[in-house]
Q: What sequence folds into this?
């Protein structure tokens, strides 16, 4: 079995859902720890959903690219979209001093992704958002 999977899907929720299904099916035979599979799905879901909902003001069809690689004891998720600038590393932690009903709910999935990933990088290059998420697969 190849150690990487390349996915391309359109900027809509039904195509994202198909991409998530394909990623899960591909990951299953690797018998990764649950948190590695979870970080993959969370990364795709949060990054792509943000792009779908906020990244394309032109309302045209765009393609989101993802490559998932399993090597030795490491999982890499490379995500690329051509939406408006969005650096997930800039999402601010919620103010925990605020009453819970006043705290924003937007961006909590991105914050969770940053907490459970071992590392995450962002680059804006040639009009694209390029995010790489790293997760150890050793138990």
A:
């Amino acid at each position: 079995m190849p150690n990487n999977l390349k996915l391309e899907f359109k900027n809509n929720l039904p195509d994202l859902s198909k991409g998530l299904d394909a990623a899960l099916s591909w990951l299953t035979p690797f018998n990764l720890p649950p948190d590695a599979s979870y970080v993959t799905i969370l990364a795709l879901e949060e990054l792509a959903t943000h792009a779908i909902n906020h990244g394309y003001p032109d309302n045209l069809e765009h393609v989101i690219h993802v490559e998932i690689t399993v090597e030795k004891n490491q999982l890499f998720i490379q995500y690329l979209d051509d939406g408006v600038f969005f650096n997930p590393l800039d999402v601010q932690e919620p103010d925990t001093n605020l009453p819970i009903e006043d705290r924003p709910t937007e961006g909590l999935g991105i914050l969770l992704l940053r907490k459970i990933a071992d590392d995450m990088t962002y680059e804006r290059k040639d009009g694209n958002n390029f995010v790489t998420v790293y997760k150890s697969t050793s138990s």
